[in-house]
Amino acid sequence: MTPLAAAAPAKPVDVVPLVVVIVLFVVVAGIGFAASRWRAAPSGLKSLDEWGLGGRGFGGWVTWFLLGGDLYTAYTFVAVPAAMFSTGAVSGFFAVPYTTVLYPIVFLLMARLWSVSHRHGFVTPADFVGGRYGSRALSTAVAVTGIVATMPYIALQLVGIKAVLSVLGVGGGGNAFLQDLPLIIAFLVLAAYTYTAGLRAPALIAVVKDLLIYVAILVAIVYLPLRFGGFPEIFGAATAKLTATSPVTGKPIGSVVPPAASFNAYWTLALGSAMALFMYPHSITGVLATKSRGTIRRNAVALPAYSLVLGFLAFLGYVAIKAGTKPIDLNGLPNPQLVVPQLFLDNFPGWFAGIALAAIAIGALVPAAIMSIAASNLFTRNIYRDLFAPQASAQRQASVSKIVSLLVKFGALLFVIGLDQSSAINLQLLGGIWILQTFPAIVGGLYTRWFDRWALLTGWAAGILVGTVSAYSVVNPLTKAHFGGSIAPLPFTTTPVYIGITALVVNALVSVVLTLILRAMRVQPGTDITTTSDYGADEHDPKVVALEDRATEAEPPVTQPPTA
Amino acid sequence: MARTVDRPTRGPARPLPYVIVGVLLAIGIIAPLLVPTYARTDPTLAGIPFFYWYQMLWVLLDTGLLAICYFIIRAEDRRRRAAVGVDRVAARAEQDR
Known about the structure:
Chain A is an all-alpha fold and about 575 residues long. Helices cover about 70% and strands about 0% of the residues of chain A. Chain A contains 24 helices and two strands. Chain A has a two-stranded antiparallel sheet with strand order 1-2. In chain A, helix 7 packs antiparallel against helix 15 (about 295-300). The model of chain A is unreliable at about 1-10 and about 550-564 (pLDDT under 50). Chain B has one domain (about 15-90). Chain B is built from three helices and no strands. The chains are: A mainly alpha (about 575), B mainly alpha (about 100).
């Protein structure tokens, strides 16, 4: 017995839920390996289109599950209620307006990105930026930002799995290696089926995961409020806890309804996060894997169903306050990240808690797989191929990507085992600010060629610099550590806003002003390989490769109708 | 890189459908972000403060707005594609393969 165990009795292993989690994990692993044969090309998964984008043929249903599993990650499911439990609305419930305003943005932008990528065979956002601006420097910057922002995000998915294992009492032994063994096994299995089946594996697993999540949360949101005296009681308990004065800061702990001083922080967090989400390579991978323009737009209409579930899940943070849930980690210290797993374990029979916990753990595997695929596609296309091996064949690219996907996952694993959890959270927070700085290049490029490539590159650098410095300057009032949050006063004012938005404004201003200057100096723009028609192309339109082949033959005359 | 003439995939756009969709999308983005319009407790719904149920309501409202946008854009896209006969060309390309 360690000295810590004297303060808190050692957590016993919960057998029934653990068995349910293991059984579901094995089922899911089987599905992952079997996915390599699902609708696969007869020649096998020997190109990035096949391995990294699932054959570019996912229809509406598969895409709904895939993107749902991809965007609403296990970490979201753990962190949002944890934030509600700890400090209330501002840092937790903003996720609901964030995932509401997300979909008009997706509707607006992603169909155009799909069309131009379909036409040119682009696999990554950096492919598009490179083709649009003819700038290797800019496409490399977009690729590196994407990889760096994704790595800590993968690491955080492990935090989701770890939360489930800790609540079950697994991984508490004294031996450091044994402690992390379950996590290592889970990740080895994940790495193996991602390597074998590519994007098809998370696509199929997402179906299982999402159904489990829906069942678990809908049952919880009906049953738990009934058990704890209804919503008036629950919100009353939350108000009592969050409006109490914190002994450390002398201010209220949090808020149930945000005070006027937090309004700008609230909406800038929601907007900035929504603008950033579809700049992440794993979201774009999900978009480019779809069959047609319409698939994406239909999904923009259907995906908000997940946002409702996320809202209910956020309520569970308050339910836990009322229920008096005690999220105690294996080391005997409180850890709010454990609050939802603990809530399920305390209030449901073992088998049902097992289903809910398995849903969270499997929910970590889906995005972790997609993220590692997206990051390795970026590396292969925009670093390996663009900078080192321009002649690399499709088959060669696929094998490089498969190997890099393994490296990416082991990197994330070492990250979580080696560093403490808070550095993963800090880096993920920074990653969100960084990825938002690719917005002007990617989204600007979808609509206009006006921006100059060097202006965009300078704007990107300025945004990254401002964002990183501001985030470093935020000091946590409790621990006095830097990178204490993602909200800081807008420069020259006292209004707190999301740092990503401040940095994006700087980025956009630099890009616009510098473009004007470079235009005046008549600096040559890069070659744009895209044309206006590419941005409206659909599934059956010929791809550029096909167009070029036919151009060498006699061009059949196309009857052009009189233009209006 | 050799490039063929740019063969249009769509005919010219009519402004009206795009203006309507633009306005609807703008509403869908701006309204859920107007925090002062909903940062209060009353009226509650089944004990849930206004702040919470109103934002959840906007998830549904945005879905409705996007559904309308989807049908408007689909009709306009079809009209524009028909205007250049692009689907006939595409069908022929498919046969060539």
